[in-house]
């Protein structure tokens, strides 16, 4: 793998082109990591890009299931001056990092003897990585524990590349939609129980995204209100009568 570094993505690309004696039209470029800043604006870790001749045996990660509009950012889109706009840098980083993230999830799954492939859908700041496997039960885990663990790690992986505004969701065979229906059902059951008993109902610990769905389902209810309490993985949703819930 021909990896080149620089203080900026543009500089890393230029270093690769100069070293390999290539023009932009002769190269395949993949942004691996953007630069990371340390104290006082100093570069803590340089940007990393992969530069290969266009006629080399180059295969973008995961292209077997990528749609055509998710292909690598064309090198022709780069300005001849070597300077890149923030939008161009971000587009290249998103294209490469989304695939790197999916590969990272694939490696995590392999450690648990789960073999999978994937398809990536990018919608602005939301990435949905649809996972395909012959062991869906093991991938999901008890109450979604395994797929949620992978999802948390995938988001951490993206944040380390300084893309804090990106939210990654892992899905398989419409699991998230099915799970949402279950959450809506248990939210209604909780409402009925709270109204009947006038006591609070405490859910089992659940991920932040699922807690947010419960709150969304109940936000307009005039008889109950919901809030979260606890820390980390033990954080839970509490549903209580409005008269018993402190703001």
UniProtKB/TrEMBL annotation:
GO terms for biological process: cell wall organization; peptidoglycan biosynthetic process; regulation of cell shape. Residues 177-243 form the R3H domain. The keyword Lipoprotein does not apply. Keywords: Cell shape, Cell wall biogenesis/degradation, Chaperone, Cytoplasm, RNA-binding. Belongs to the KhpB RNA-binding protein family. Forms a complex with KhpA. This is RNA-binding protein KhpB.
